[in-house]
Amino acid sequence: MPVDATLEVERALFAAGAPVVIGVDEVGRGALAGVVAVGACAILPTCAEHPVGLRDSKLLAPARRAALVPLAHGWAQAIAVGEAEPSEVDELGIIAALGLAGRRALIALHGAGVDVGRAEVLVDGVHDWLTPALVTAPRIRTRAKADRDCASVAAASVIAKEHRDALMRDEHARFPVYGWDGNKGYGSPAHLAAIAEHGATERHRRTWLRAPEAAGDARGASGAEV
């Protein structure tokens, strides 16, 4: 049975002198359409205990995930989501686009008063795609399953997922034949069939449709959310 994320890692970083910890996670990496979004959640040593039920967004029912959004905003010092457009994914590649979205999220946190330059940044996964996008990088720490284990990263995961899902529901209103209200731009069979019948839109990642095997980590082609 899934368990809630904890603050064990963040508290260890605070005990070592970090003035702020920023959890970072992405959503939409493997989608065929829509933005890739990076959530960033900044917490302070004085932050209260994290919301009950906070965990990796993929482990939460939609209603519970939506309910956690205002709780996460009330708990954190600040939260932001950065985006990279489908055209930027096509131009730069998915890894650089992730970095661009992450940089935009950190800039937004800085604008909200977060001391980003002195922060310890926890990035979900084992690959540091964020540092190459930054001019002056804070300390970046990658951690496998951080979205499951670390409350700040779980909050970033939830916020980014809800943000991107809302964008895709809006896009569905413009392009209903692709079923983005359900598949959120991932490569479900119905989505792929709609592309074959109607062609691609400006919200699709065109390079991925021409050569999905060359699109980096395109696990979304199987319909799985990444």
UniProtKB/TrEMBL annotation:
<dbReference type="GO" id="GO:0003723">
    <property type="term" value="F:RNA binding"/>
</dbReference>
<keyword id="KW-0378">Hydrolase</keyword>
<protein>
    <recommendedName>
        <fullName>Ribonuclease</fullName>
        <ecNumber>3.1.26.4</ecNumber>
    </recommendedName>
</protein>
<feature type="binding site">
    <location>
        <position position="124"/>
    </location>
    <ligand>
        <name>a divalent metal cation</name>
    </ligand>
</feature>
<dbReference type="Pfam" id="PF01351">
    <property type="entry name" value="RNase_HII"/>
</dbReference>
<dbReference type="GO" id="GO:0043137">
    <property type="term" value="P:DNA replication, removal of RNA primer"/>
</dbReference>
<dbReference type="InterPro" id="IPR022898">
    <property type="entry name" value="RNase_HII"/>
</dbReference>
<keyword id="KW-0255">Endonuclease</keyword>
<keyword id="KW-0479">Metal-binding</keyword>
<comment type="similarity">
    <text>Belongs to the RNase HII family.</text>
</comment>
<keyword id="KW-0540">Nuclease</keyword>
<dbReference type="InterPro" id="IPR001352">
    <property type="entry name" value="RNase_HII/HIII"/>
</dbReference>
<keyword id="KW-0464">Manganese</keyword>
<feature type="domain" description="RNase H type-2">
    <location>
        <begin position="19"/>
        <end position="220"/>
    </location>
</feature>
<comment type="function">
    <text>Endonuclease that specifically degrades the RNA of RNA-DNA hybrids.</text>
</comment>
<dbReference type="InterPro" id="IPR036397">
    <property type="entry name" value="RNaseH_sf"/>
</dbReference>
<dbReference type="GO" id="GO:0032299">
    <property type="term" value="C:ribonuclease H2 complex"/>
</dbReference>
<dbReference type="GO" id="GO:0046872">
    <property type="term" value="F:metal ion binding"/>
</dbReference>
<dbReference type="InterPro" id="IPR024567">
    <property type="entry name" value="RNase_HII/HIII_dom"/>
</dbReference>
<dbReference type="GO" id="GO:0004523">
    <property type="term" value="F:RNA-DNA hybrid ribonuclease activity"/>
</dbReference>
<feature type="binding site">
    <location>
        <position position="26"/>
    </location>
    <ligand>
        <name>a divalent metal cation</name>
    </ligand>
</feature>
<dbReference type="InterPro" id="IPR012337">
    <property type="entry name" value="RNaseH-like_sf"/>
</dbReference>
<feature type="binding site">
    <location>
        <position position="25"/>
    </location>
    <ligand>
        <name>a divalent metal cation</name>
    </ligand>
</feature>
<keyword id="KW-0963">Cytoplasm</keyword>
<dbReference type="GO" id="GO:0006298">
    <property type="term" value="P:mismatch repair"/>
</dbReference>
<dbReference type="GO" id="GO:0005737">
    <property type="term" value="C:cytoplasm"/>
</dbReference>
